[in-house]
Amino acid sequence: MWAGYKNYLKRIMSTLSEKADHLLKTIWLMHEKCVIDAESVLSRVPFSERSTIKYLERNGFVSLDNGVLKLLPRGKERAENLIRRHLLAERLLTDVFQVSEAEMTKSACAFEHILSPEVTDSVCTFLGHPPMCPHGHAIPRGPCCAKLSTEVKPVVQRLKDLGVGEEAKIVFITPERNKTLERLALYGVVPGNQIKLEQKHPSYVIKVDETILALETSLCEQIFVKKIFKQNNKK
Asked: Is residue 87 a contact partner of residue 51, using CB atoms and an 8 Å limit?
């Protein structure tokens, strides 16, 4: 009986937490538009979630005074982290996995609740610290971004974005058809192998071991690589 009651409380707290997170995100987004009056903010929230404001107020996430709704430091930090995880997930799902708009939104909502700070920073670094989401909204900067003085290129990029003469290691391939994978594998174009981009015009030409291979532009957009930086040996 006690175990059942604990599971019931866990479900209640999980639901409350998701509602609280959704409300924090809404408040943060409205504040970005310089809207701080409670009536305007709550008009954007489903009626069933409005009572959650009391929970946020009791736990030090927001303050509500004379009709003005403000995010306290604790609430602002959590809201920014939620927004950051959501928008980074949108970038990952769009740029790398090329999922549909509906699936991207659904999955990003799930990711924002489960990604740890370490994984979030890893995703951000993997994508090259993108400043905006696919819809053009600014992505809040994180600790990994603060360490950078300039924007950097993604750790992993499409083959077509390599410079002529540059070498890279294939990380993964996202072909539209399985037969494409099989055809590429015959020539050694598989994850883990090293390639060199020989030319871009009039067509893309790569070198894999001793094999020279011409590729369509569309195919070069589906091959993701990690550039190899050669160190100069000083005597």
From this structure: no
Q: For residue 65, give the amino acid letter.
A: D
Distance CA 185, CA 219 (A): 13
Q: Delineate the domains of the chain, giving CATH numbers in brackets.
A: 2-71 (1.10.10), 76-146 (1.10.10.10), 157-227 (2.30.30.90)
Query: Are 129 and 156 a contacting pair, CB within 8 Å?
Result: no
- Ramachandran angles phi, psi of 67, nearest 5°: 80, 5
Q: How far apart are CA 39 and CA 50, in angstroms?
A: 11
> Which pLDDT tens digit goes with each residue over 6-33?
453 344 334 457 888 888 999 998 888 8
| Phi, psi (rounded to 5 degrees) for 167 | -110, 150
pLDDT in tens, 197-211: 999 998 999 999 989
Sign of CA dihedral 182, 184, 186, 192: negative
Count other Cβ atoms within 10 Å, centred on residue 76: 17
3-state secondary structure of 154: coil
Looking at mean pLDDT, say which of 43-57, 94-108, 189-203 comes out highest: 189-203
| Residue 149 CA to its chain's centroid (Å) | 21
- Over residues 134-159, mean pLDDT: 77
- What does the block give as tokens for 208? 């894999």
Contact 191, 172 (CB under 8 A): yes
Residue 205 · residue 189 · CB < 8 Å: no
